Every structure is written in C-alpha cells, then in structure tokens.
Amino acid sequence: MSLDRRRLLAMGASAVLTSGAAARAETRSPEGVQAAVARFAKLPVTSSCLVAADAPAPWQVAHDPKARLFVGSVVKTFNLSGTTTRRSVLEAMIAHSDNTATDVAIASVGPAPVRALIKEAGLTATQIPESTRRLFSYIAGAPEGVDLGWHGVQQAVAGKLPGKPRPPLNDRETMASTADDLVRWYQQALRGAFFKKPETLVEFKRIQAMADALDLIVPTNIAAYGKGGSIDWQDFHCVSIAGQMVVDRVPVTFCFSINWTGPDAGVPAVMKSYGTVIADVLQQAAAAVR
C-alpha cells in the first residue's frame, strides 16, 4: 500500500479510533459488527469483506465474501516462504510494499512453489502474477509473457503504452483473491499450518506485523498481522487489506476489499469512507469478543 494510500486511510480511520472506549463499552455482541459491515456494503464501490472470530462461540460476519476482486499487494503475503536468509527483502516487501523486493522474493522461490502453496491452502480463487513487472507490462498492453523492465513500466505509467491497456482484474496476469480465501489463509498461516519450525512462524508473524496500514484500522494496543494493497490504473482503483488481530487471546481474522472505476479526483473521498468504516468494523469486532 503506497504512502499516499496510507495517508488517505488514516484520514478516515482516525475519527473512529479516537472513540474506541465508547465502542467497547456499548457493544458486546456481533450485532455491532453486523451494523458496521452493513455500512461497508453501502459504499459506492464493488466490495467484499469477511470478519471471523475464533471465540468460545465462534462467529462470522460477511458481505459477498466469495467475490473475486483485484487485491493488489495483499497477495505478497504468500511470498513469505518461511526462510530468514533474505530478511531485508521480505521486510521491504511487507512493510513498504516494495515491488522490486517482491520480484526478488518471487524470483528466489519461483512463482510455481508460491502457487503450489496457494493450492495447498485451499485458496481456489486466488491468483498471483509471474512478477509485478509482468503484471504491469501486461495491463499496459504488452504481449503476454513480455517484461517491459522498470524503465518500460515507468514509461507506461507516464502514458507511453506499448499497446491497448488491459484491466488489472483479468485471467492471465493479475493479483486477485476473495475475502473467503484471504481469511482462510491467515487463519491457517498464523497458527503455523505451513511452517515446519516454530522459529519460522515467529519470523512470519514478526514481518507480517510490520505492515503499517494495520496501525490505521486496528484498535489501539491490539496486536495485528496482515498486508494491504492498492492500485490506480487508468480509471480503475483498488484498495484491500487482510490479516488478523488478537483480542484478549482470541484471533479475529478479516479482509476488506473494494474495486471501483472513476476519476482520480474521487479517490480521497472513497478512501476516507473506506478507512472510517473498516476501522469501525474492527472496533465493533473487538468489543464483541471482549
């Protein structure tokens, strides 16, 4: 998630986060979560979300959780292969959403093992690209399989397209998933389902906790793990965040994704509304667990 995206998200989330004590005092059941998710569903975008609590009496609240949307850098979570020899690369990929670091990680393990992990996790609607450069090359209009290089991608972003542009959400080179898939992934991964060594799980959690978008939506003093993603391409926009917060030792796993088309001038207003409502959902979820 870019710095500008994080700043816009903070604009919306700040008002909700300052009223956390009142939310905790007033809400003790998922009813508050249901109401907040209903507000999320009313945003003037294509949206999908799922919030699942592993409480003594587990509950889930969702809005169209099987919708396949473009989720951007959220899929970078699958590149954390569990090794720590390339720690700096992985930290840059998750904490700063650095695309070069992402491509280094993908090149290191190869996209095939990442896809095999996605299949092992049962994530049937999730798709990753060969690399972020291949993704941007493809949607910029380059033939499938062609990598324009970062200079070529920069030219494409500046408007010098190599061909007819394509939508980011497609069936060839994309970053797509569903709320169902991403919640299932975090539920499994954060309990250690894909790691052979305890220390590898610790490293996975440490790096996932570095995603700074989490600080903007998760209630204060609650540990959280996850990844955010976004894109602005032509008139297409996306923002998504998925992960898990731990409230009084109870995991609450979540995913919120929105896709929409419209002018760039409208992005700040959408982002502010998005940040406000998802921070409210997580406040209500924390209150329901406590």
How would you name the oligomeric state of the polypeptide chains in this document? single chain
CATH topology: Beta-lactamase
Task: Please give the share of residues in helix.
Answer: 40-55%
Q: Give the overall shape, derived from the CA principal axes.
A: globular
Mean pLDDT: 86
CATH H-level superfamily title: DD-peptidase/beta-lactamase superfamily
Please give the number of β-strands: 7
Strand order of the largest sheet: 2-1-7-6-5
Detail the poorly predicted runs. 17-28
Q: How would you classify the helix and strand content by structural class?
A: alpha+beta
CATH class: Alpha Beta
CATH architecture assignment name: 3-Layer(aba) Sandwich
Q: Mind telling me the C-alpha Rg? A: 18 Å
* Count of domains: 1
DSSP helix count?
12
Biggest sheet character? 5 strands, antiparallel
User: What percentage of amino acids are in beta strands?
Assistant: 15-25%
Q: Secondary-structure element sequence?
A: HHHEEEHHHHHEHHHEEEH
The separation of the N and C termini measures 30 Å
Give a written overview of the molecule.
With 290 residues, the protein is an alpha+beta fold. Helix content is 44%, strand content 18%. It has one domain (3-85, 122-127, 175-289): Beta-lactamase (3-Layer(aba) Sandwich). The strands form two sheets. A five-stranded antiparallel beta sheet has the order 2-1-7-6-5, with helices on both faces.
For the structure shown, list the relevant keywords.
290 residues; alpha+beta; Beta-lactamase; five-stranded antiparallel β-sheet; two-stranded antiparallel ribbon; 44% helix; 18% strand
